[in-house]
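Reviewers asked in the last cycle whether our approach scales beyond single polypeptides. To address this, we selected a multi-component target totalling 984 residues and predicted its structure end to end. The input consisted of the following lines:
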Amino acid sequence: MELFIQQLVSGISIGAIYSLLAVGYALVYSVYNFTNWAFDGFMAFGAFMAFTGISSLFMPFWLAAIFSIILTVILSIGTEKLAYSPLRVRKAPRLFMMISAMGVNLATVNIINLIYGGTFRKFPVTNLQPIFIQGVSIGRMDLLAGGISFGVLALLWIFLYRTKWGLGIRASSIDILTASLMGINNNSVAMIVFAITGVLSSVAGVFYGIKYAVFPMMGVVTIKAMIASIVGGLGSLPAAIVGSMILGILETMVSGYISSTYRDLFSFLFLIIILLFFPNGLMGKNIDEKL
Amino acid sequence: MGYINTIIILGGINIIAALGVAILTGYTGLFTIGHAGFMALGGYMSAIMVKEFNVPFPIALLIGGTFAGLCSFIIGYPAFRSQLRGDYFAIATLGFSESIRLLLNNTKTIGSIKLGGAFGYMAIPNHTTVGVVVIAVILALFFVHMFVTSQYGKNCIAISQDEVAAQMMGVNLLKTKMIALFISAFYAGVAGGLLAFYFAYLSPSFFTITKSSDLLAAVVFGGIQSLIGPVITAFILVLFPELLRSFAEWRLIIYGFLFVIVMIFRPQGLLGYVEMNFEFARVWWNKIFRRKQAGSQEG
Amino acid sequence: MNKNVQFFRKWWGLLLIGVLLVSALSGCGSQGKVLKIGFITEQTGVDAYVGAASVPAMQDYVDAVNAKGGVGGYKLELVVYDTRSEVTDAVAVAKRLMDQDKAVAIIGPSWSSAGIPLSDIADAAKVPMVATTASNVNVTVAEDGTLHPYMFRVCFIDPYQGYAQADFAYNKLGLRKAALLTDIASPYTVGLHQFFEKHFVELGGEIVAKEGYTQGDAEFRAQLAKIKDAGADLLVVDAYTFKDIGLAAQQAEGLGLKVQIMGGDGVFVPELLDMAGPQLEGAIVTTGVSDVDPAFAKFNADFEAKHPGVKANIYTYYGLDALMAIEHAIGEAAKKGDVTPTAVRDALESMTDVQLFTSKVTMEPDTHNPHNKPLLIMTIKDSKWVLTETFQPK
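The resulting structure, written as structure tokens, was:
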């Protein structure tokens, strides 16, 4: 029983990190209907910027985190302006935007590799001792990460549902053309959405970096986040969180009780099965082809 | 000369696999980053056929390709039946490819066949030569050209432009996509087989996401709805690293930027929408020949 | 046919021809009295950290040799190519070195999945290759038992290291219940764990848990919780990448799993101590070179002074071993006459008690593996390596 709860706890903490990424991904998808493959690179960028802040610029942690957020937001918005919006304006097929995003990702990750080298770095942050409740360990870092993740997500929720800009974004996610007819500035919406993406990737990157390590290829975890948000149902932020939790717990349970070696195979099969029975994900919006 | 041979062989293999991706992504508009998985399936199957069952080499290649094609139904059917959107399909192909790699890494033996798992499948006969590859590329080009100029090819193009409209014109979406995927996987499988008989060894580590991305790059740069574009680019992408060796670390960065630049400034790639036919040889000749005449007249 | 198309076709065609010509010609050119030594390594891709320190270290060494007048009357030139951590590229660049650059010997590869196909290619081209850290048995000796005449290595092989680890754990540390955390995508890890298990069980030990993961994974808590539940007293993580054992140690501590941790030479890099020194307190790592030896300490310090930000590691040391072996072989071949790749190969095969960078090496003529290369058992104490024992094969 203790083992079961331990696995559950581990699963939830993994799910928390997936959530941050999944929400960022879902946000972009719900408004623009395309997969931001560059997310991978943004996350690594965020982590490395914070790392540089602490180790080369001797900033205290909180300052480095803010430094990282600002830079990642600039990167994110810059990418939007240079690599996505020319295509968006032209109503280019989604395929082209995805390829452009992959290009940005390739370039970002490899520039990081070039500058920093491929080795694995540790965030110079003291290791916090885990809390033990009846033999089940709960990492303090995980609690912090979980808390901040949910805090950020709550802030995001407030932003989306209680502010004017949030309304604009939600309107755009339903129909971008109509939204612009209603007076919503598409460019501002783009900027805000990608700024949020930047913040989320930076925070996710920093947490991942602290929990595990900082290295150029660290962004591959975003693929899990994509799977999570697809499973939950693209186009819905709560769904992305639910999907992430399910994926995190499922992975850990499979790893713990079935086979750790075949864990990823199960994740993939799970994705296929979900899509077979729930083509729009578990909680997804039903988007029909309109004629 | 062995070096030039290597370039031709690896380039040829890349061309065949890239043609496979071209059919699926270039013509049918389905983004795939999982073709390395099909290469692995075809490669291992062909190798097993020859090494364990003494099947003649060319037939083994075809069996390998067919096996890869049949396996494509595993993701094709669920994906297309539920009208999986472009991005979902891409992630599905990625997941599929990684799962294949995982399975291969973990399978030490199947019955009495020692696949080797992560150690790899060893002592495969060395059948791939320059001649074999050149013939394979020519055949591949011939058949794929037939496909894209046929009604099926036109159906694929219709799907890539607008699925709903295509459906209204009577195109059976499920069937067409699955055929495109099958052929695409078949080509990748044959390419995988050729690779196996060139290295005389197969390891799951040959078939990573990097390989899939390389194939995609060939199609993106070479051109959508074009065959000759990806062919040339696939070959150049094998050649390029050799020329840029001093800039090795910059190469992927350059590719990344090129992806973006190509998409923004020339999304049809370098030779997109250009149909391949053999007129070009005659035109070329005329152009050079006529130029010469003009020059000597002015002389 | 529109003009655009014609334009492109003509230029692509010319470009292709031009490119082929250039690459064909680029390899030619007279050598004078210069011998080219090829080095294939990972400069980009997932294993980019492997080549990062090796290249400057080896270039420094070649420069030093040349400054002293070269070897046997020849100057040396190091030609480095990137394998991109991909076998296809490793094969292409090795071939280039053999056919175009006319290298007299090639250093590399560093991993077995590339080593196995390359051994056939080296034999066919008759150019010797000295693998640095490829430790799978089949790199030098084919599956059917035949030797690859042109393939050598300077590191010890998996059976040797796995055996040594099991022996030490059982006999010296008195451990009986081992758990294996295996990177299933790495032949190195799979091989080492296989041989560890064989000998450990032979001695009477028990493998209580066998868990897997794949390259790139960072989350091991599910596996570690199971290992804790199984009551293991030893955790063997002979990872190819140090991050795996570092993270495993951290996460084990987080779970309250108290167990002896053991790793192989793949993780013997200084960055491991930076990453997880405190959590790895008391961990055992087997290796072929001792960082603690004053000679190495001096080398590391000089290296870091000359190349700030880059630290020398196991790949550097083995790279230098291979380079020095080739240097020795060139010297021997020069004494006998022309330095051809085959002459270098013969000299490599007959290497006896030659001082390389990490130790003295005698090449076993029937396996092309270094004979009884000393295996050092290091313990991590206070985030530093401490030499605990030198393993002697029986």
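The interface with chain A takes residues 44, 46-49, 52, 182, 184, 211-214, 216, 218-219, 221-223, 225-226, 229, 241-243, 246-247, 250, 254-256, 271, 274-276, 278-279, 309-310 of chain C (CB under 8 Å). We regard this as preliminary and will revisit it once experimental data from Aim 1 are available.
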